[in-house]
Amino acid sequence: MTSVQLVSPPSELIQADVERAFAEDIGAGDATAELLPANATASAALTCREEAVMAGIDWFNACFRRLDPQVQIEWTVRDGDRVAAGSVICRLRGKARALVTAERSALNFLQLLSGTATATAAHVAAVAGTEVRVLDTRKTVPGLRLAQKYAVRCGGGHNHRVGLYDAILVKENHIIAAGSIKAAAEAARRLHPKLLLEIEVENLDELQQALDAGADRIMLDNFTLPLMREAVSIAKGRAELEISGNVDLSTIGEYASTGVDFISVGALTKHVRAVDLSLRLKLD
């Protein structure tokens, strides 16, 4: 599905995500699972009820293995694969109580992350034939940023900065506080010379100031199509250009045609619709 490198977050982070999910879901114990015989074993089949791009298999597996280290899990797909509606994509066998207790948390991870990957894949397809790279943003579910950014890669997208520490994005309020685009850029280069410097601009005059200040990348915030094309003509490759604002599947294709380098889409991780998955259990 994707040519973007798929490297899951560290196993320690995935396990920490699972522990938080279990803490809020299981608490002191699964009262309903206690209705099942303690030694009962079962098998289960996971079906994807709609076409989707998969992401989150490591989180799904970690949920079941946390409660039953001996659980058997067999997948027919990998993260980044597109699956057809009605596909049985995974089979499990293990302790019945562990299967029913871990089910909801496991599905929550897989549905959310596959939803992110599926939405990303749709936006990537909409810019096919151009050189534009589709980026995510920091508008992620609290506590699951690295998970969602991994899911974006599963869908063929690329990651913007992970947080406030690995790149500098100078926005309107930073410019106001610094006094000017030039002053903000100079401070950024002095304090963090190795970090990417991106400056958000709202008009062509600010674009020229950002170019003069030596920005590595310039974000065109809510530019019209004609202004996007003019910005590309003005920049002439002196800085990478990124479009942000009013981006959806109905607009991203036209935006990509302007010749910019990146289009960032907050909806990839913010407006996620969970993929429809079903796990059905059968006692041995």
From TrEMBL:
<feature type="domain" description="Quinolinate phosphoribosyl transferase N-terminal">
    <location>
        <begin position="30"/>
        <end position="114"/>
    </location>
</feature>
<dbReference type="InterPro" id="IPR037128">
    <property type="entry name" value="Quinolinate_PRibosylTase_N_sf"/>
</dbReference>
<dbReference type="InterPro" id="IPR004393">
    <property type="entry name" value="NadC"/>
</dbReference>
<dbReference type="InterPro" id="IPR022412">
    <property type="entry name" value="Quinolinate_PRibosylTrfase_N"/>
</dbReference>
<comment type="similarity">
    <text>Belongs to the NadC/ModD family.</text>
</comment>
<comment type="pathway">
    <text>Cofactor biosynthesis; NAD(+) biosynthesis; nicotinate D-ribonucleotide from quinolinate: step 1/1.</text>
</comment>
<dbReference type="InterPro" id="IPR036068">
    <property type="entry name" value="Nicotinate_pribotase-like_C"/>
</dbReference>
<dbReference type="GO" id="GO:0004514">
    <property type="term" value="F:nicotinate-nucleotide diphosphorylase (carboxylating) activity"/>
</dbReference>
<protein>
    <recommendedName>
        <fullName>nicotinate-nucleotide diphosphorylase (carboxylating)</fullName>
        <ecNumber>2.4.2.19</ecNumber>
    </recommendedName>
</protein>
<keyword id="KW-0808">Transferase</keyword>
<feature type="domain" description="Quinolinate phosphoribosyl transferase C-terminal">
    <location>
        <begin position="117"/>
        <end position="280"/>
    </location>
</feature>
<dbReference type="Pfam" id="PF01729">
    <property type="entry name" value="QRPTase_C"/>
</dbReference>
<dbReference type="Pfam" id="PF02749">
    <property type="entry name" value="QRPTase_N"/>
</dbReference>
<dbReference type="InterPro" id="IPR013785">
    <property type="entry name" value="Aldolase_TIM"/>
</dbReference>
<keyword id="KW-0662">Pyridine nucleotide biosynthesis</keyword>
<comment type="function">
    <text>Involved in the catabolism of quinolinic acid (QA).</text>
</comment>
<keyword id="KW-0328">Glycosyltransferase</keyword>
<dbReference type="InterPro" id="IPR027277">
    <property type="entry name" value="NadC/ModD"/>
</dbReference>
<dbReference type="InterPro" id="IPR002638">
    <property type="entry name" value="Quinolinate_PRibosylTrfase_C"/>
</dbReference>
